[in-house]
Predict the structure.
Amino acid sequence: DVQLVESGGGSVQTGGSLRLSCAASGYSSNTFCMGWFRRVPGLEREGVAGIGIDGRTAYADSVKGRFTISQDKAKSIVYLQMNSLQPEDTGVYSCAAVSCPRGVVVAAADQYEHWGQGTQVTVS
């Protein structure tokens, strides 16, 4: 089974930075697309960033230029570097995985099959 465990969340002041990690097991980084999503109570889950098998990336407009998704395939860890954090970035951040073909980034949450428990990010 694919298992995803997030870490790195916390509380930070406006303008600060955090790096989230998603440790994955039971999958192949050469056949799975990965994504980061966030959820705020009362709102729908929002896609933040995704990375494909070949390393191509995609971002939500709200985080472009501030967040960076990357992957260490040797360690099976996907990172989300978050800079210039704003209060509206507050939420529970989850990573997700799905088997995918080369050349794509999976953006829609309902296409992902495996999810971590999430880590809280609070910006004030």
Remarks:
- The radius of gyration is 13 Å.
- The CA atoms of residues 49 and 59 lie 4 Å apart.
- The chain has a mean pLDDT of 95.
